[in-house]
Amino acid sequence: MASAKQHRFFIFVVLGLLSAIGPFSIDMYLPGFDAIAASLHTSVAHIQLSLTSFFIGIASGQIIYGPLLDRFGRKPPLVVGLAIYIAASAGCALTNAADNLILYRFVQALGSCGGMVASRAMVRDFFGPTESARIFSLLMLIIGISPILAPTVGSFVMAHWDWHGIFLILAVMATGILLIVIFFLPESKGSNPGISLMPKPVVQSYWQVFRNRQFYSYAFAGGLASSGLYAYLAGSPYVMMTLYGLDEKQYGLVFALIASALIAASQLNRYLLRTLRSEKVAKTALLIQSSIGVALAALSVTGLINLYVMVALIFLFLGSQGFVFPNTSALALAPFSRLAGSASALLGSLQMGCGAVTSALVSYLHNGTAVPMTGMMAGCASLSLLILLLGSPRPAGSHPGQSRR
């Protein structure tokens, strides 16, 4: 029994590391935006496009990985993705042009999304639908720690080296994860020659997933809610460091404080699921999040906000996200078994696609204030709530403690 528990814990840790690749890639270089812009002789708004290109890469790449994971099993596409990520990270570290950085970040994302898709599909493989919401909550602990560690590590690298070192460290980290995957991670689902990789069957598989009402309701709701987080990621370097005058280390500390809300909420979610259904928790959290988002945007528009109020409201906003993400993800994936890889890919693609649009809009609407960031955060949360209130079905077996029929 102890051996079995240790085995499950090891699998969970590896899946957590795979899930953390994306957040680390997003957050670790944020404290270096000003330095990168100066080094590459461009503006911070232009460097923000490297974040947008990363989101676009993840959104598009996951569509490719889904059928590959269902056809060849989980590990082979995962290994290829990690190799691509390592090569692109080295390219980011060695580039001397902003446009090249934007391109390499896109390729880096194509590699990283393999880990994100595979980890979600493996949760479904190893733990099944009845445990998946709790496992997603546990993964949020690792994903939540990433935004705390990543900017802190990035700030330390900036203080003792330069921004090139950030991408070299990402390459080294991914190399370690790749070796663990190759030699220690068990395959969770064998290859299935019956899954065709021809365009028509692939599109049909995705359409079969997408037309499921439970999937599209919770996938879009979760994707829009996550977009509020990505709006914060895109806008916070300018808002915190330029508008409020924080230095790189102070920004890292504020980022860590705000991220801690995500961690605490995702773990509290595990206990709430013992007595409450996932859809109930998600709707309640979105109601709170949208209210906080509207208040944040209104105070930004009127100028009646300072650094402390801004941080407090964003803390509560992202705390709500800790309840939304694990529940909407589990509910979206619950109806699928044979097409779990495709469902996971489509879910991630929708989430990151929304994030790419949101981060691009924050950059495009840049006007020297916090309004583009806070306005997008409020809009995303409100639209997500509207989707759940108007369109979500009552999922069968959505209580993690109950068996699906």
From TrEMBL:
Residues in domain Major facilitator superfamily (MFS) profile? 11-396
Give TM regions: 9-26, 46-65, 77-96, 102-123, 135-157, 163-185, 215-233, 253-273, 285-305, 371-390
PROSITE patterns in alphabetical order:
MFS (PS50850)
CDD domains xrefs: MFS_MdfA_MDR_like
Question: Topology relative to the membrane, per the entry?
Answer: Multi-pass membrane protein
> What superkingdom does the record give?
Bacteria
Alphabetical list of Pfam families matching this protein: MFS_1
Subcellular locations according to the entry: Cell membrane
What InterPro entries would the database entry show?
Answer: Efflux_drug-R_Bcr/CmlA (IPR004812), MFS (IPR011701), MFS_dom (IPR020846), MFS_trans_sf (IPR036259)
SUPFAM superfamilies membership: MFS general substrate transporter
User: Which Gene3D superfamilies does this one have?
Assistant: Multidrug resistance protein D (1.20.1720.10)
Q: Which family does it belong to?
A: Belongs to the major facilitator superfamily. Bcr/CmlA family.
Its name, as the record gives it, is Multidrug effflux MFS transporter
The organism's lineage is: Bacteria, Pseudomonadati, Bacteroidota, Sphingobacteriia, Sphingobacteriales
